[in-house]
Amino acid sequence: MDTLLTHIYKTDPVTVTAWATVAYVFVSILLFIISYRSLRLTRNIVSKTNRPFIAIDSIECNFSNEKVKYPPTLLAKLKNIGSLPARNVRLTLTGKVNNSSITLHFPENGYLSLFPNMEEPVNFQIENSQFIQAVLFPINPNEIFLEIEYQGITEEKYLTNNKYCYDLAYHKLIITDCKWK
Q: Pick the residue with more confidence: 89 or 69?
């Protein structure tokens, strides 16, 4: 009884070469697929970690009961905590007040740019007395939303959403939610 190896040795050398080539192509395709998936995963990891991250370092308001200044302002300090510069940075402040809302944009014309570890103070002047009265003397819980849109060195757009509410006991804004996209 012939074994498989003796059968292969007795067959035509062209047939052996053909089967070896088929096996080689199969292994090569398998290695290509594995390499492609590994490269895609590496690119995904690098793009998620090497990007700008804009965060609100601190937020202050000067419209508490004791120290109202006119015009009332909301000072937000932005900081790029990512590893790449951020460009086309635009902030949108939306205040939800008793079923109505006001929206402010900064900068009004144009955009900001932030390098890594760079801070930028942003002053919102709030001239809506209904908004201030609702924050100082809330009947219903009021919320303030800060949305930051920006780009990195590519054309991909990023978004940071922060949600705040006004703490009457300490007369300051406290963050209730933060999301990066």
A: 89
Supply 144's token pair.
């303030």
Give pLDDT tens digits for 16-47. Answer: 788 889 999 999 999 999 999 999 999 888 87
Kindly give, in sequence order, each residue whose CB lies less than 8 Å from that of residue 24, ignoring residues fewer than 6 positions away. none
Contact partners, residue 97, CB within 8 Å, separation at least 6: 130, 131, 134, 135, 142
DSSP helix/strand/coil, 52:
coil
CB atoms within 10 A of CB 15: 10
Count the helices and strands in the chain (H runs, E runs): 3, 9
pLDDT (tens digit per residue) in 116-127: 888 888 877 766
Question: What pTM value is reported for the model?
Answer: 0.65
What separation in angstroms does the CA of 17 have from each of 8, 23, 157, 164? 11, 10, 53, 71
Q: Are 110 and 57 in contact (CB under 8 A)?
A: no
